[in-house]
Design brief:
The chain is 12% helix and 39% strand. It has one helix spanning 2-21, and strands spanning 40-45, 58-61, 70-75, 81-86, 89-94, 100-110, 119-121, 126-129, 135-145, 154-155, 160-164. Strands 1, 2, 3, 5, 6, 7, 9 and 10 form an eight-stranded antiparallel beta sheet that branches. The protein has a three-stranded antiparallel beta sheet with strand order 8-4-11, with no helix packed on it. Strand 6 (100-110) and strand 7 form a beta hairpin. It has 165 residues and is mostly beta strands. The chain is built from one helix and eleven strands; from the N terminus they run H-E-E-E-E-E-E-E-E-E-E-E.
Length: 165
């Protein structure tokens, strides 16, 4: 009786094994790709200062309401969220001399091209969003102390870092 049982098991296993080999395996893989375009930052107007008056200790350009503020537009993916980062204090060097000035930048932004309704953007990383056309508008202003400034021309760079989130 034991021998018959063992023989029976030997015939059953190949049948099970063969049944598994003929089973069809199906898999579906859905792949979605979202292409995100690069972000372009275009300077429309640079920031300008008027001539300093005798005894004037500082120059200030308000980014929310001063026509002398710089104006830029960022172009990206419509409706996409982004994060903004910039250094609010930069050293301006005298072009033909040893002098320098410290400039404290202020930046305002708006999803519509309307400076007067733009809001001041603090230095901390903050989430913003491109409008439906993929645009976001920036106005650049700030303050510089000229009390001890040497006569001459000064230059410096302002860098904004914009990353999708």
């Amino acid at each position: 009786m034991k021998k018959a049982f063992l023989i029976l098991l030997i015939f059953i296993f190949p049948a099970i094994s063969h049944a598994q080999e003929s089973t069809e395996l199906r898999a579906e893989v859905n792949i979605n790709a979202q292409i995100i375009r690069s972000i372009d930052l275009i300077t429309i107007n640079t920031m300008t200062f008027g001539n300093a008056q005798p005894g004037q200790e500082r120059l200030y350009v308000n980014p929310i309401n001063d026509v002398n503020s710089g104006f830029m537009v960022a172009l990206g993916t419509p409706g996409a969220a982004f994060r903004l980062d910039y250094l609010n204090e930069r050293r301006l060097t005298q072009i033909d001399g040893p002098g320098f000035l410290i400039f404290r930048y202020e930046l305002s932004g708006n999803s519509v091209e309307e400076q007067s309704s733009s809001e001041l953007l603090e230095v901390v990383n903050r989430n913003l969003q491109f409008n439906n056309e993929g645009r976001y508008y920036f106005w650049v202003g700030g303050e510089v102390n000229i009390e001890n400034a040497l006569p001459g021309n000064y230059e410096g760079d302002f860098t904004i870092e914009i990353d999708y989130i």
